[in-house]
Amino acid sequence: MDIIKEHPVLSAFAAYGLLKLGQITLQGLGFVWKYLIPHGYDLLNRYGPCWAAITGATGGIGTAYCYALASSGFNLVLIGRNEKKLAELEASIKTRYNKIEIRTLQIDFAKDSPNEFVKKLEAIAEEVDIGFLVNVAGAGHGIEYQLYPYESIEELINVTVIGNSLTTRLLLQQ
Ligand SMILES: NC(=O)c1ccc[n+]([C@@H]2O[C@H](COP(=O)([O-])OP(=O)(O)OC[C@H]3O[C@@H](n4cnc5c(N)ncnc54)[C@H](OP(=O)(O)O)[C@@H]3O)[C@@H](O)[C@H]2O)c1
Fold first, then answer.
1. What is the full per-residue pLDDT of the chain (174 aa) written as tens digits?
2. Full DSSP string of the chain
3. CATH of domain 43-173
4. Which residues line ligand 1 (CB under 6 A)?
């Protein structure tokens, strides 16, 4: 080390070497941070700030989406056919995520006429800015398709095709 102190040229080389080493270390850390550490996917930043609407909110997949979106900071419009289930879900989400706002919307895609439920959707879409839609209302019966009674096929089409398609169309128009 003394030899380096005594020779200015060697000192300059040593300082340059240290700087280079620091630069390479920082580049390495930057690479690890950018490519090797998972940062998640910031949906709210990408699509928001806005509200997320979830059809089939009271079902298995819908409820999972509700919690995931609430944890990302989205305000929620919970769409379902059963008022009691919707109220329970709203209360349950609020106990965990008390900073977000929640609206519930009762729609039965099999029983309400398209005119009726489109009006309900229009009303909520005027009230809040819905920018993210999860369409998972479904009326499957967990049996083989050839065993479905006719009425169930009609219900399936009304919910998954008519209901979800008109919901998508209406919200895209907003
Ligand atoms: N889970 C799976 O592994 C899986 C795999 C492939 C496809 N899928 C499909 O994905 C969709 C959702 O699956 P899931 O497991 O979450 O089903 P789920 O638990 O049965 O939930 C269905 C949701 O749709 C709602 N719904 C049913 N009929 C309705 C109607 N007439 N009007 C409005 N809402 C209605 C239900 O409301 P209620 O709570 O009031 O019943 C519930 O919120 C279904 O179409 C299913 O077939 C599921």
1. 666 667 777 788 888 989 999 899 999 888 887 777 777 778 888 887 899 999 999 999 999 999 999 999 999 999 999 999 999 999 999 999 999 999 999 999 999 999 999 999 999 999 999 999 999 999 988 899 899 999 899 999 999 999 999 999 999 987
2. -HHHHH-HHHHHHHHHHHHHHHHHHHHHHHHIIIIIS-----HHHHH-SSEEEEETTTSHHHHHHHHHHHHTT-EEEEEES-HHHHHHHHHHHHHH-TTS-EEEEE--TTTS-HHHHHHHHHHHHHHS-EEEEEE------SS-GGG--HHHHHHHIIIIIIIHHHHHHHHHH-
3. 3.40.50.720
4. 56-62, 80-82, 85, 107-110, 136-140, 159-160
* For the chain, domain boundaries: 2-36, 43-173
Which residue from 61, 89, 158, 159 has its CB within 8 A of the most atoms of ligand 1, so it is best to mutate?
61
- Could you tell me the pTM of the whole model? 0.82
